[in-house]
Inverse folding.
């Protein structure tokens, strides 16, 4: 009897600990979920950075494929930025008007390059930027905190994934020197 009681108490204690850990894991996952304001800020800054970098590409590159890619970035990211700003302002969320210092430094470093070196640096930056954008939008698309932002992310994600594939091809055509 005493042995059975001990096993039962151990089982109950183990169950309580596991339940507590599961609840903690759910709370930790919820805490890691980005706020709507953070998503708007990060997505807007990323989009504005793409547009700025693309304008630099149109000035600093002589390669037709780089120019074509840059024009596409300007068109698609401007369109997405406008749509995101519309959603955000309808919800009273702040929309950044400028890129932050980190992203400004990326664009400035591209400005200082020309020719093949620029093309390689720009292409690699676009691969990196779009990897980050796809991850950001995947996270928001799966989020349930704001259905409008989640829907925007889901709708925009295929375009960003296509940009990533285009950037990969551009990087393959313009490897580092």
């Amino acid at each position: 009897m005493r042995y059975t009681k001990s096993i039962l108490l151990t089982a109950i204690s183990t169950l309580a600990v596991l339940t507590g850990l599961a609840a903690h894991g759910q709370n930790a996952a919820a805490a890691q979920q980005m706020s709507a304001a953070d998503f708007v800020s990060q997505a807007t800054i990323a989009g504005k950075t793409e547009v700025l970098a693309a304008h630099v590409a149109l000035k600093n590159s002589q390669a037709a494929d780089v120019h074509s890619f840059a024009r596409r970035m300007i068109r698609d990211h401007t369109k997405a930025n406008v749509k995101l700003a519309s959603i955000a302002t309808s919800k009273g969320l702040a929309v950044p008007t400028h890129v932050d210092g980190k992203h400004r430094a990326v664009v400035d470093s591209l400005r200082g390059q020309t020719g093949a070196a620029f093309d390689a640096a720009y292409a690699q930056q676009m691969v990196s930027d779009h990897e980050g954008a796809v991850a950001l939008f995947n996270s928001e698309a799966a989020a349930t905190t704001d259905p409008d932002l989640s829907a925007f992310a889901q709708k925009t994600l295929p375009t960003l994934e296509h940009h990533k594939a285009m950037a990969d091809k551009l990087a393959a055509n313009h490897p580092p020197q």
The chain has two domains: 1-32, 34-173. The radius of gyration is 23 Å.
